[in-house]
């Protein structure tokens, strides 16, 4: 009897010739379609909900954004909430991860197509061990979400909250996947001063948002397999730390709505909101509709750059921020090479960072133009909404449900682009390359 491992099912050659970005985009769209159909079933909702709102919810869940046009806890049944949870889980750790994990434990090797998509989904280096990484991701996710659910259940049970088991599971998954979906109409504003709920949600969100590559690197260093953390991990941890510290201090001193709180409650509220923006989890413990303009701008920056590569968050990522800072500093000092933390940044990484930033700004300008044409809302709130969607954050200043249909479609597209990744989306929809004639005239004066 043969003991060799069975090979994966053969993949049509046509699929292997399709670029990874197109496969990633197609995969997310197919999952959104499935989730949309599931949510539109009568058994999924407690009241009539429009097809557009079902689509909005499905995209928000799969993109782990958390923006909603309905009340998830009241308007969706347990079945609908379960569909949302599955979409959050699939989006949080990559839509191909579950299928890849099943293939690994049965066939013991990953098909070429799945490996191709997984590397694109997680932004992994070309020579990275995808097989081992996916198993580590699944195991670590399950452990963190289980511990988080158990911790939340203890707190929810003690407070006499309704359905503590399901609520703890739902919010643990939502927090770890930095989705920000909640079953309570005010998010966690009622628990602004509850230390344990703030701590558990913050821990889950930070672990999920900091990135799987960093967590694996930390674990290997702790076990002695690595002598030191990699440069990427050092950059991510450094920027995450300073975003949290400086952001909390600024929020603490500037935001008027928390000035009347006791110092410890004020500090806790400031940290939680800054953490929520920078990890892109999107929960809130204070009302966001009346934040001061400087604080809104602070959160916009954190939502754009706070999350890390290969984690569950969205946006431009902290590594893009580090590359841009290195570019500016090196240019001002007249250096021929671009450095950050005394290390040189490879040209390919710098090119990707600047291209992502430029594409981000272009998409933001177009989306704001659409908003200004279709919506009669405060421009600052519209900017906050667009940035939240692009960063898959889910924070809102209370205007999501009041948007026009075109405004909601605008956000659906922004959430899709934010989840897939700005460069990945751009490469997925691009079709034209330079012709030999166009390559002749290649000089540009700047």
UniProtKB/TrEMBL annotation:
Keyword set includes Phosphoprotein: no
Compartment(s) where it occurs, according to its Swiss-Prot or TrEMBL record: Cell membrane
Its lineage reads:
Bacteria, Pseudomonadati, Pseudomonadota, Candidatus Lambdaproteobacteria
Q: Which GO terms describe its biological process?
A: metal ion transport
Example GO CC term: the record gives: plasma membrane
Q: Which residues cross the membrane?
A: 20-39, 82-107, 128-153, 165-184, 196-215, 235-254, 291-308, 353-374, 411-429
Record membrane topology: Multi-pass membrane protein
Q: Cite the Pfam families for this sequence.
A: TrkH (PF02386)
Q: Which GO terms describe its molecular function?
A: monoatomic cation transmembrane transporter activity
Q: Which InterPro entries match?
A: Cat_transpt (IPR003445)
Name of the protein: Potassium transporter KtrB
Report the source organism: Candidatus Lambdaproteobacteria bacterium RIFOXYD2_FULL_56_26
The main location class comes to membrane
Keyword field: Cell membrane, Ion transport, Membrane, Transmembrane, Transmembrane helix, Transport
């Amino acid at each position: 009897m043969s003991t060799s491992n069975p090979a994966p099912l053969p993949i049509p050659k046509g699929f292997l010739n399709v670029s990874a970005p197109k496969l990633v985009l197609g995969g997310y769209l197919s999952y959104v379609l499935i989730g949309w159909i599931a949510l539109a079933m009568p058994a999924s909702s407690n009241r009539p909900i429009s097809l557009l709102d079902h689509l909005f919810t499905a995209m928000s869940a799969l993109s782990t954004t958390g923006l909603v046009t309905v009340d998830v806890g009241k308007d969706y049944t347990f079945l609908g909430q379960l569909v949302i949870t599955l979409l959050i889980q699939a989006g949080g750790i990559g839509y191909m991860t579950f299928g890849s994990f099943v293939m690994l434990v049965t066939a013991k090797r990953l098909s070429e197509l799945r490996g191709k998509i997984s590397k694109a989904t997680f932004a992994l280096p070309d020579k990275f061990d995808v097989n081992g990484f996916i198993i580590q991701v699944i195991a670590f996710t399950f452990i963190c979400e289980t511990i988080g659910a158990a911790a939340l259940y203890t707190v929810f049970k003690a407070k006499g909250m309704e359905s503590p088991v399901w609520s703890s599971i739902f919010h643990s998954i939502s927090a770890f996947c930095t989705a920000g979906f909640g079953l309570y109409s005010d998010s966690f504003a009622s628990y602004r001063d509850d230390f344990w709920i703030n701590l558990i949600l913050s821990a889950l969100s930070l672990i999920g948002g900091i990135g799987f590559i960093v967590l694996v690197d930390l674990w290997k260093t702790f076990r002695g397999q690595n002598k030191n953390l990699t440069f990427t991990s050092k950059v991510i941890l450094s920027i995450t730390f300073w975003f949290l510290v400086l952001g909390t201090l600024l929020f603490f001193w500037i935001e008027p709505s928390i000035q009347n709180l006791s110092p410890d409650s004020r500090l806790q509220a400031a940290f939680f909101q800054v953490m929520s923006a920078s990890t892109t989890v999107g929960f809130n413990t204070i009302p966001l509709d009346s934040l001061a303009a400087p604080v809104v701008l602070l959160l916009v920056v954190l939502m754009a750059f706070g999350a890390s590569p290969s984690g569950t968050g969205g946006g431009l990522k902290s590594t893009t921020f580090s590359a841009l800072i290195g570019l500016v500093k090196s240019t001002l000092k007249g250096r021929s090479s671009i450095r950050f933390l005394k290390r040189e940044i490879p040209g390919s990484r710098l090119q990707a960072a600047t291209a992502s930033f430029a594409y981000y700004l272009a998409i933001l300008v177009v989306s704001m133009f659409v908003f200004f044409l279709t919506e009669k809302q405060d421009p600052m709130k519209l900017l906050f909404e667009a940035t939240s969607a692009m960063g898959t954050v889910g924070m809102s200043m209370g205007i999501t449900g009041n948007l026009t249909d075109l405004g909601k479609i605008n956000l659906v597209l922004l959430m899709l682009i934010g989840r897939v990744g700005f460069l990945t989306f751009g490469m997925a929809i691009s079709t034209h390359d330079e012709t030999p004639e166009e390559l002749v005239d290649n000089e540009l004066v700047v």
